[in-house]
Amino acid sequence: MNTTEPLRFGICGLGFMGRTHFRYLSAHPAAQVVAVCDKNEDARTGRWRATGNLAAGAAQHSDLSGIAQYARLEELLADPRVQAVAITLPTPLHAECTVKALAAGKHVICEKPMAPTLVDCDRMIATARQSGRTLMIGQCIRFWPQYEKIKALVDEGLIGAVRFAKLARLSSAPTYSDGNWLLNGAASGGALLDLHVHDVDFAQYLLGLPATIAAVGCRGVSGQIDHSFATYSYGDGRYALLEVSWAYHTPWPFEMAITVCGERGTLTWSSRSGNDVLHYAGREEVQRIACADEDGWKRELDYFVQCVRAGRPVSRCLPESSRTSIELFLLEQRAISENAPVAVKGD
Predict the structure, then answer these.
(1) Which of 54, 65, 145, 307 is least surrounded, with the fewest CB atoms within 10 Å of its CB?
(2) Which backbone phi and psi does 69 adopt, to 5 degrees?
(3) How confident is the model at residue 54, as a pLDDT?
(4) CA distance linking residue 165 with residue 167, whole number of Å
(5) Which helix H or strand E contains 216, and what residues bound it?
(6) Is pLDDT of 60 > 90?
(7) pLDDT in tens, 235-251
(8) pLDDT tens digits, residue range 11-25?
(9) 22, 10 contact by CB (below 8 A)
(10) For residue 205, how many C-alpha atoms fall within 13 Å in the half-sphere facing its CB?
(11) What's the pTM?
(12) Rg (CA), the chain
């Protein structure tokens, strides 16, 4: 593509994540939002209400003058100005809308989770290959400054060989989604899919595929698994402990946290304790490692825009890797259902 011009986006779905994408893409020096799409007239005309579990995307009104406003995806895809589409819709619509956008010749960044089934994931990947367009799933934790920093330091060997990791994503039930679809487990997959997929994805990004998964969990207000505690064992002594919850009672604050313990030190961060990653290495003083004061949504969009404009693959977040995260979610779901560990088959 012409790298002297901005990458022109259409955004499909203007809930919390759609507005977050709009916020960052509208201000991006190498991108331009030229169209939006939502079945709700208030949403597509910029009359927005504050929602979400983090501060981004909380604007209650946006000026969308000069931006095409569509009620149907097909209308947006027919707009010749649109080169890339952000799919920020409820999970059951991801595969269908992504496939349509790719087949129409558009690049696609689709929100996580990729899709509820491996069949849908495979359809998305196959269409991307056939179309020659870029597909990336918004696994934003790979780009979150603190997680990014921890992975880089682990890869550099700062804490020695990893012994174990702990990842948690905890909150009370989300009540902010359009039509409360997140609390309809048949649509969202409950916390185990919608929220936990972040840490499932980062665990495999950091540590690779586990050999076995053991997990316990309980159903919650969504009707699906809304609390889970899982152990990912790697067959070489390493393990990861993953907890997710929508089960805590209001007003339990949202928290995401990670700890990685190695032979020579421990790295840890929580969203409730500032921006710095803490490094414990047996010394009296804890080292504070500064991280950028921004979120992973901005950074993932920066990366996607850069890759598409340069014609490079999205190697940091390939759709095949996002498919693996869905496969691990399904295995964890099975481990809970069967109350027994399950084996993970490698490639």
Answers:
(1) 65
(2) -120, 115
(3) 58
(4) 7
(5) strand 212-219
(6) no
(7) 999 999 999 999 999 99
(8) 999 999 999 999 999
(9) no
(10) 27
(11) 0.95
(12) 20
Residue carrying structure tokens 């956008």? 101
Question: What distance in Å separates the CA atoms of residue 238 and residue 211, rounded to the nearest whole number?
Answer: 10
Position of tokens 């604050």? 253
- The full set of domains in the chain, from first to last, is 7-138 (3.40.50.720), 142-297+326-343 (3.30.360.10)
- Please count the other Cβ atoms lying within 10 Å of the Cβ belonging to residue 318: 15
Q: Collect all residues with Cβ–Cβ distance below 8 Å to 236 and sequence separation of at least 6.
A: none
Contacts of 335 by beta carbon, 8 Å cutoff, 6+ apart: 213, 214, 215, 230, 341, 342
Other CB atoms within a 10 A radius of the CB of residue 53 amount to: 17
Element (H, E) at 343: strand 342-343
The whole-angstrom separation of Cα 116 and Cα 134 is: 21
Mean pLDDT of 147-151: 98
Cβ atoms of 9 and 31 closer than 8 Å: yes
Measured between alpha carbons, how far is 256 from 188 in angstroms, rounded to an integer?
19
Buried b (16+ CB within 10 A) or exposed e, 238-268: bbbbbbbbbbbeeeeebbbbbbbbbeebbbb
- CB–CB of 59/34 below 8 Å? no
Return phi, psi of residue 313, to 5°: -70, 155
Backbone angles phi, psi at 225, to 5 degrees: -70, 115
* Alpha-carbon span 12 to 79, nearest angstrom: 13
Sort strands 107-111 and 84-87 into parallel, antiparallel or unpaired. Answer: parallel
